[in-house]
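User: Here's a structure from my thesis project, written as structure tokens. My advisor, Dr. K., wants to see whether a designed sequence matches the one we expressed. Can you design one independently, without my sequence as a hint?
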């Protein structure tokens, strides 16, 4: 079992919007083993997106299902289009 964790440091006031975007994607993709976490007492405006998977191969297959003509059409569209407008740093590369 693997846990894939992505940590996003949001721009001030953008964490709530990012959480909503991830939850919508999780529902659309039927990601039962995914969760979105937010800070309570640490660095403000931090959003963590976690996915449990059996193996890297299983995660790659799921990612391909979501990107290649599946859930969002193309790899470029898989990440929310305005993700970079909401986070600090280069999250889109």
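Assistant: Designed independently from the structure alone:
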């Amino acid at each position: 079992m693997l846990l894939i964790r992505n940590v996003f440091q949001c721009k001030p006031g953008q964490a709530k919007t990012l959480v909503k975007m991830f939850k919508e994607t999780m529902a659309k993709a039927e990601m039962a083993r995914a969760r979105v976490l937010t800070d309570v007492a640490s660095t403000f405006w931090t959003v963590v997106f976690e996915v449990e998977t059996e193996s890297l191969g299983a995660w790659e297959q799921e990612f391909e299902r979501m990107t290649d003509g599946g859930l969002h059409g193309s790899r470029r569209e898989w990440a929310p289009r305005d993700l970079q407008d909401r986070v600090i740093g280069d999250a889109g590369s």
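When you compare it with your expressed construct, this may help: The chain is about 40% helix and 25% strand.
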